[in-house]
């Protein structure tokens, strides 16, 4: 009778161990496709192109820019040369969506901490108040690693033009806006090693962030 109870207990433990392992495995997301599409405008209509497609020579890319990070260093498109990076837009005094976005960007930082091919870029949408010392203090408070994640300030018009006309980060389609209209978006934008947009994700959503991680890994295969 005792042996039967021991065997029953062992069987139950084995069952829950197997089920637990299966659940752990299914939690890790994979890309929905073997290769990611390319995006060229604000509707984010996917363009399915091969990496050697001639159309990519004239396809939309993130243009040249010149900004300053939390260490007072110049950050430009050359900083991300041959790198994959994730871009977003925030401001340090934001008490609404920004703290959650920063926390989820930190998930990305931790996931790719030892991968030099992956970087993060957060643009301040209030550059007039987010000075270099302010960004530096924010970085220290949030556990941001300077070599992995650039918080940038600079010319307001340049940042707003990048956000709306280059990254298409804002979802207010069809509305004409200037840098006088506040830019506020929860989106994370995935950029490949050739400055092409390869994905957009809700930076407040944990599932979307996990999908982003999976898509970065898919994108890395293009480099490897």
UniProtKB/TrEMBL annotation:
InterPro entries: SCO1/SenC, Thioredoxin-like_sf. Cu cation binds at residues 94, 98, 184. The keyword Zinc-finger does not apply. CDD domains: SCO (cd02968). PROSITE patterns: PROKAR_LIPOPROTEIN (PS51257). It comes from the Bacteria. Disulfide bonds join 94-98. GO terms for molecular function: metal ion binding. It holds the Pfam family SCO1-SenC. SUPFAM superfamilies: Thioredoxin-like. The keyword Nucleotide-binding does not apply. Keywords: Copper, Disulfide bond, Metal-binding. Belongs to the SCO1/2 family. This is SCO family protein. It comes from Psychroserpens burtonensis.
């Amino acid at each position: 009778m005792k042996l039967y109870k021991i065997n029953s207990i062992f069987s139950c433990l084995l069952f829950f161990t197997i089920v637990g392992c299966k659940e752990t495995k299914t939690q890790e997301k994979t890309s929905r496709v073997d290769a990611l599409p390319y995006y060229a405008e604000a509707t984010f209509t996917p363009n399915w192109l091969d990496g050697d497609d001639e159309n990519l020579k004239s396809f939309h890319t993130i243009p040249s820019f010149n900004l300053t990070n939390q260490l007072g260093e110049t950050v430009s498109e050359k900083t991300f040369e041959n790198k994959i990076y994730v871009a977003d837009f925030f401001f340090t005094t934001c008490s609404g969506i920004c703290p959650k976005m920063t926390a989820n960007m930190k998930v990305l930082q931790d996931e790719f901490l030892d991968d030099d091919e992956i970087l993060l870029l957060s643009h301040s949408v209030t550059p007039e108040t987010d000075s270099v010392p302010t960004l530096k203090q924010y970085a220290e408070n949030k556990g941001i690693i300077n070599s992995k994640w650039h918080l940038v300030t600079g010319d307001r018009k340049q940042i707003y033009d990048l956000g709306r006309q280059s990254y298409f980060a804002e979802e207010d389609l069809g509305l004409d806006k200037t840098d006088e209209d506040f830019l506020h978006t929860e989106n994370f934008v995935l950029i490949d090693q050739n400055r092409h947009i390869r994905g957009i994700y809700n930076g407040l959503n944990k599932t979307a962030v996990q999908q982003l991680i999976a898509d970065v890994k898919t994108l890395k295969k293009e480099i490897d």
